[in-house]
Amino acid sequence: MTEARKPLLIVEDDPALQKQMQWAFDQYETIVANDRTSAIAQVRRFEPAVVTMDLGLPPSPDDPSEGLKLLEELHTLMPSAKVIVLTGQNDRDNALKAISMGAHDFCTKPFEPELLTWTIERAFRVHELQEENARLAAARESPSTSGIITRAPAMLRICRTIEKVAPTSATVLILGESGTGKELLARALHDLSPRSGGRFVAINCAAIPETLLESELFGYEKGAFTGAVKQTLGKIETASGGTLFLDEIGDLPTALQAKLLRFLQERVIERIGGRQEIPVDVRIVCATHQSLKEQIERGRFREDLYYRLAEIVVDIPPLRARQGDAALLAHSFVRKFAAEQRRSTMTLLPDAIEAIDAHAWPGNVRELENVIKRAVIMADSESITAGDIGLEPGDGDADALNLRHVREQAEKNAVLRVLGRVNGNLSRAAELLGVSRPTLYDLMHRYGLK
Ligand SMILES: Nc1ncnc2c1ncn2[C@@H]1O[C@H](COP(=O)(O)OP(=O)(O)OP(=O)(O)O)[C@@H](O)[C@H]1O
Ligand SMILES: [Mg+2]
User: Fold this and answer.
1) Among the bound ligands, the one closest to the CA of 154
2) What is the CATH number of the domain that holds 45?
3) Which residues, judged by CB distance below 6 Å to any ligand atom, belong to the binding site of ligand 1?
4) pLDDT given at position 63
5) Exposed end of the chain (fewer CB within 10 Å): N or C?
């Protein structure tokens, strides 16, 4: 099979020159355009990696304004395209201007075919290398945030945020449903921070009775209350030099909210029964599955405290919203627990993977982790079935995974969007979509669009 010829767009208003260039560059699929508008339409349609372009285009072939305008538009429409500008003999200034505007290279007219061929070939090569580079960079984009397994773009963005915020002392608020990995992220933040040599101290504000929470956080002096037999440091002080993780911050009782706010403002604590103000250097990270905004509206959470805690907010999406992550995590948990149980290599069978993919995971990663752990312990063989996981076998939600189906859906949506914009102008719609009018009619017919 011979490789398809690469599209090369030639923007040139002189018909004789058009012919000459098509003939000279017949190793490419040459596409010609006479003016700015048709050039844009051809770019939409063929997405050429390389464009050669006469700067003097109609309606003003004697000045470069139309050409430079096209250059600008090409840059927005297809930033990766390499544009080679053809200029007159004495037009160095405009050539330089075009280069400064992002043109890849220039040649003077009349051009030497051999020289222009080299220039075009080199432009294709540069384009290829850049695309390859971008692909590799995307593939490398696995989080350096250790232990966090994900490929979902929203989660990868969160990992980037964590990496950026870690070196600062900003207070971070982590939101997310139960089991989404809030504590895992808080620990990653600590590990990546300059405080990683200090302690990571976690306290769950919902799990400790209100009466004890204050002494847990702030500590007490000997004799402060009955039973205070010796001086005891609170979690805030213990975390000094490190990170204090306040889990379920939404459950912090109102009286303690005021005390915490004061600490955040003054950065000093007083132990219960103590008189001394003790400065503490600690980074605060909080988490909650509740909506703090709602708690504020109900008068259950102090707004001023919220703004102190929410210098940076990280909102973790639930597992069901991270496409592909459930299966990815499941494979990794199988490996982890099989090793822990000293079982030989275990694998998930396709029906198990489909079932995992289809399940909504209301308990998020924690639920998935528990289910896999149980399955690894219970499975009779080295293969884990949907039954071992305790889920219905996948109902063959293959429809959603069928590439043709996905493409068609995207195609239909794009046609719908464009039709909505053009106010009935089908030529314009075809142009925006980069297809011919007959193709557009075809698409509209296929998707039953009027
Ligand atoms: N992206 C992930 N990659 C690997 N393991 C994960 C990931 N997210 C969560 N986990 C694991 O799932 C479990 C639950 O995570 P974590 O305790 O951080 O969640 P949480 O949001 O704090 O939950 P809760 O609201 O129940 O306290 C942990 O064992 C954690 O290691
Ligand atoms: Mg937690």
Assistant:
1) 1
2) 3.40.50.2300
3) 147-150, 176, 178-184, 289, 329, 365-366, 369
4) 84
5) N
